[in-house]
Amino acid sequence: xxxxxxYLVVAGAIVLLAPIAATVYYETGGGTGCASCHEIQRSxxxxxxxxxxxxxxxxxxxxxxxxxxxxHLNNFQRLVGHLxxxxxxxxxxxxxxxxxMLARCQKCHRQEFADWQSGxxxxxxxxxxxxxKHNASEALEDDCLRCHGMHFQGGIRDLVSPINTxxxxxxxxxELANLPAIPCLACHQIHAHGAPLxxxxxxxxxxxxxxxxxxxxxxxxxxxxxxxFAVRLLPLPEMRDHDRPVKISPDPRQALCYQCHAPLxxxxxxSGDDRTAIGVHEGLSCLxxxxxxxxxxxxxxATCHPRLSNCGLDVETMDTTFKxxxxxxxxxxxxxxxxxxxxxxxxxxxRRRALPFSEATFTxx
Length: 365
Description:
The chain contains 13 helices and six strands. Helix 6 (about 100-110) crosses helix 7. The chain folds into three domains: about 1-90, no CATH class; about 95-195 and about 215-230, no CATH class; about 235-345 and about 360-365, no CATH class. It is mainly α and about 375 residues long. Strands 1-2 form a two-stranded antiparallel ribbon. The protein has a two-stranded antiparallel ribbon with strand order 3-4. A two-stranded antiparallel sheet has the order 5-6.
């Protein structure tokens, strides 16, 4: 009986310690232990040349002191899978891994995380996919997951039921209800090649044109290929207003915006989810008015207009969607002729017509 008890104690200790031992195995050598499994070699090589290379693997992925038993069990399962040859490569983050990853992003990027969390891109699965007004007018489809739910492993039928415009709708994965449908990793590649951010981030003597416009991590996660595509690889569309070519900002960050806020195949301004500016704002970048993470637009008018327009009126009091979302004059498409159908009057005392924005004025910090 005593021998049996000892056997059970030893077996129990192995069961309890094996997952933690697997975690320690992965972490040894500051990441080289991770790379000893060939399935992780690719990720390790990317990390070694990335902006996060000064952080250990455990800083983002958890370590031996992580209190979540599921984390250690997952590492143990991967170790067993590696030894038995059952793990495919590369190993990718799964939807259940994202909440912990977001919490670790927040530890270092507090301001960016707070801005994102207070903005529209932090919308939850329930808010996006259980929207009665939207679902009643347009049937849900797999393409919805291209932007909302990039990391969800499955199709729309695995996420929402029923797939019709009658409802009532429910999430088939209720644990996702309050999780963000567009997490940090939708627009940022953590292992992107680049140098760590120096301190101070902008040396005082650096001229404006030489300052960094965006971090190397800015990239689109494509759920079909399960890969990130850097902004430099994403094209800017050729937009048209009927037959007229539209001048769009050369701001490369817009290429990321266009992946979700895209026009229809006709590339017509305002079609689909497009919001390309025309009229008085033609040529401006999305990020000239929308802050990067929170998307707030409160300071957008004041940034370019010292209160007054060319008409001599306070632009923030004009009848546009900046003042009232129900206005018939969408701030993205408003033209002078919308308010002056008989012709735009000249500004009293004006010696010359105001020049349009140049291509260099596509952004603000």
